[in-house]
Design a protein that fits this description.
By secondary structure, the chain is α/β, with parallel strands linked by helices. It is built from 9 helices and 14 strands. It is globular, with a radius of gyration of 17 Å.
């Protein structure tokens, strides 16, 4: 039976990109592990978060998430760095330009073993999100909160998350993130950031049947037909159970 890291002080930002999410997690008082395969983005983050790195509140890992420790080409999208991926077709969609760089690859289990199981795991690793979910099956302890980008596979993702032991779910429309505010620290989210998580999410936590029903009405029906304009996209959030996270959030604010 799996356990969940309800008291962990760590957040893992898989797919750190420009660091806006990492910035939010640091402001919330967490220790952060920021992971990104793009060496240029990691270099910029080291400049942006020099104080947090020096104070050991942040660790930056320049690596791609993969099923085994190895090295392989990572395709940096030169037109939209959010699309960069180990998958050349994923990275170069819409005929965008890419540049291959050799990067270190690391399994999620190695990160958990070295840095601790996080309270919240943000997954936004283009083309490898499902690989992370599948890797969690073998691990005895999991993050209390988890989110990942929908990427057209919402029903399958929800099924796998439920099998891992997650019981409550939310959908967050990423196109509306810049309207969200975390009033506990007066933080307004930038467009393109992942936005709030856990107790700060604006919606209602739903069980699996209810979230699948909402997904079918707002995102895609069971036949795969899109229900919303292409200008909208979603993250799926989940949690293990109800009360413990609120206790953890309160403890961080008091500290």
């Amino acid at each position: 039976m799996k356990t969940f890291a309800s008291a962990s002080p760590v957040i893992m930002d898989l797919g750190m990109n420009n660091g806006d999410d990492t910035d939010y997690y640091l402001k919330k008082g967490y220790r952060v592990l920021g992971v990104d395969a793009n060496p240029r983005l990691c270099a910029r983050a080291r400049e942006r978060f020099a104080d947090a790195l020096r104070e050991k509140r942040l660790i930056i890992v320049n690596a791609a998430i993969w099923s085994q420790a190895t090295t392989q080409p990572f395709y940096v999208n030169l037109d939209n760095d959010h699309w960069s991926s180990l998958d050349p077709a994923w990275a170069g969609r819409e005929n965008s330009r890419t540049q291959a760089v050799e990067v270190e690859c690391v399994p999620i289990a190695h990160l958990f073993a070295r840095y601790g199981v996080p309270f919240y795991l943000k997954i936004d690793v283009e083309g490898a999100d499902e690989l992370v979910l599948d890797s969690l099956v073998e691990l005895p302890e999991l993050p209390f909160y988890l989110s990942l980008e929908d990427c057209r596979f919402g029903y399958r993702y929800i099924e796998k998350l439920a099998a891992l032991g997650y019981r409550s779910f939310q959908l967050l429309d990423q196109s509306l993130v810049d309207r969200c505010v975390d009033s506990s620290i007066e933080h307004r989210f930038n467009p393109g950031s992942s936005g709030p998580f856990g107790p700060q999410l604006p919606g209602e936590w739903l069980g699996r049947p209810q979230i699948e029903e909402r997904y079918s009405q707002e995102v895609r029906d069971r036949e795969g037909n899109r229900q919303a304009p292409r200008t909208h996209w979603w993250d799926i959030h989940c949690r293990a159970s109800a009360p413990v996270a609120a206790v953890r959030e309160a403890a961080l604010q008091e500290g």
